[in-house]
Design goal:
This protein has 508 residues and is mainly α. Helix content is 61%, strand content 2%. It has a two-stranded antiparallel sheet. Helix 4 runs parallel beside helix 10, helix 4 packs across helix 18 and helix 6 runs antiparallel to helix 15. The chain is globular and about 65 Å long. The N terminus is likely disordered.
């Protein structure tokens, strides 16, 4: 597969960042090795369905419900789901067009926008963390996650297949239970209906009384709800370089993403808001105590989400090394195609979860939520800008119809998602500006990511003197496409022999 780090970008005026991409080598440096395509179709589909369903959905929703009420929680998940769907469609187009080894958002940013923004985006991905709010299991969980990520990529795929299956079964059970209780099918035949939407109420006014407080409650829920989705779409592009038949499996996952959002996130939060009151004293017990009272499914979900985050962080670091934006030693892969040094370094950063062992685990968890969510919003903003430049370059070269996957409602859907994400990022910490609400820790948790990304961006730009952006005529839309087209021609989709196989092939 074409290796972007082995390219020379030339132009007559000598500008290294403004010109055509010329392939100088067709093979990856044998000194470092390369990743391998060990993820099967069923791995990708289940990773897409449930890879990042974890503490954000099962624990984070509890905090949001308690703070804002059921209506803001449900409405915020509807809005964020629409944004994440747009992000997934953009990623589907980008990764299906040229599914290179070491695929990641930073590689596409460098190729279609400019190198400094790619540098900032790549390191922004690398320090994401997913907290596991169960202190007694931390060492076991981290050890198992590292083992699954460092041996063979198919082990990661297989573990996520089963983890995601357990989570999906658990959420389906929760939804069925919610429907039963809603209509009074419980042991005492007490019909819940929308009782908790009436008392204690659909809204918990936030920071102000009346309609203003209700709107601020919705906006607070909108900011916080993003944590449940962070890294969810990116897992597909990060796995693209290690996936069998990417031109078939990636569009398949992108098209079906809407079902996951609707069923698991939107319907799931509606059920939670129906069966749990926003003023329930036990609502935050799982976070406050750090105990596994909520059951094995929540622990499995947190375990799985940590597994996915480690995979994503290590592959992001690997892609930075491929493009020369991290030390070349991080390109090193073992004989199974796993960038084990990247896994090791990312694992060290995961040790931050031990902060949750303290008595203030709820506070630590909320810090993680804020930092991770805003980092994710910034990453999505950069991704959407990249997609618009990618689309503009294809239009310029008359190649828009050559996309293997064409997502609907574009580019208008991208403009919609981009505008909301920019406003969310800038206003995510609005509550600290209310009288008596300001604390240094809350302010830093809300906004520290912005200056970090800006410093990374400007530092790289000043040091390497990169252009503001690549001009559209110099954006490379050819390199790697021929080989991807050839791999697509060699792909033979499985043919179902009976109805059972037809259903299975549709799912996986």
């Amino acid at each position: 597969m074409f290796d972007l780090s082995k390219q020379e970008i030339e132009k007559g005026n000598g500008d290294p960042y403004d010109g055509r991409v010329v392939d100088t080598e067709k093979t990856t440096d044998e000194k470092y090795g390369t990743t391998q395509r060990g993820l099967k179709s069923r791995h990708i589909q289940l990773i897409a369905l449930g890879g990042c369903i974890g503490t954000g959905l099962f624990v984070g929703t509890g905090a949001t419900l308690s703070t804002t009420g059921p209506a803001p929680l449900f409405m915020s998940f509807v809005v964020i789901s629409s944004i994440v769907w747009v992000v997934m469609q953009c990623l589907g187009e980008l990764s299906a067009y040229v599914p290179t080894q070491g695929s990641s958002v930073p590689i596409y940013v460098k190729r279609y926008v400019e190198p400094s923004l790619a540098f900032a985006a790549g390191w922004n991905y690398c320090y994401w963390s997913n907290p596991v709010p169960v202190a007694i299991w931390l060492t076991i969980v981290l050890g198992t996650i590292v083992m699954l990520n460092v041996i063979v990529v198919s082990w990661y795929g297989e573990s996520e297949f089963w983890f995601a299956s357990i989570k999906i079964i658990g959420i389906m059970g929760l939804i069925i239970l919610g429907v039963v209780l809603f209509f009074g099918g419980g042991p005492n035949h007490d019909r819940l209906g929308f009782r908790y939407w009436q008392r204690p109420g659909a809204f918990v006014p936030f920071a102000a009384p009346g309609n203003t407080g209700k709107f601020l409650a919705f906006w607070t829920a909108l900011v916080k709800s993003g944590f449940a989705f962070i890294l969810s779409p990116e897992l597909i592009v990060l796995a693209a370089g290690e996936t069998e038949a990417p031109r078939r499996n990636i569009p398949k996952a992108a098209k079906r993403f809407i079902y996951r959002l609707t069923f698991f996130y939107i319907l799931g939060t509606l059920v939670i808001s129906v069966i749990v009151a926003s003023n329930d004293d036990l609502l935050l017990q799982g976070v406050n105590s750090g105990k596994t009272n909520a059951g094995a499914i929540i622990l499995t979900s947190a375990w799985s989400a940590g597994n996915s985050f480690l995979f994503a962080g290590s592959r992001s670091l690997y892609s930075l090394a491929l493009t020369g934006q991290a030390p070349r030693i991080f390109r090193t892969c073992n004989k199974h195609g796993v960038p084990y040094l990247c896994v090791a370094v990312t694992s060290l950063m995961a040790c931050l979860v031990y902060l949750s062992v303290s008595s203030g685990s709820a506070t630590v968890f909320q810090w993680f939520v804020n930092l991770t969510t805003i980092s994710g919003y910034i990453a999505w903003i950069i991704l959407l800008i990249t997609y618009l430049r990618f689309r503009r370059a294809l239009e310029f070269n008359g190649m828009l119809d050559q996309r293997p996957y064409k997502s609907p409602l574009q580019p208008y859907a991208t403009y919609y998602a981009l505008s909301i994400l920019v406003v969310l990022t800038l206003t995510n910490g609005f509550q600290v500006f209310f009288p008596g609400k300001f604390t240094a820790s809350t302010f830093l948790a809300a906004y520290i990511t912005l200056p970090i990304v800006i410093v990374l961006y400007l530092g790289h730009k000043i040091w390497f003197r990169t252009p503001l952006y690549l001009r559209v005529h110099s954006i490379d839309v050819y390199s790697g496409k021929e080989e991807a087209d050839r791999l697509e021609e060699l792909d033979i989709p499985p043919i179902p022999k009976n109805m059972l196989e037809k259903i299975w092939f549709w799912i996986a």
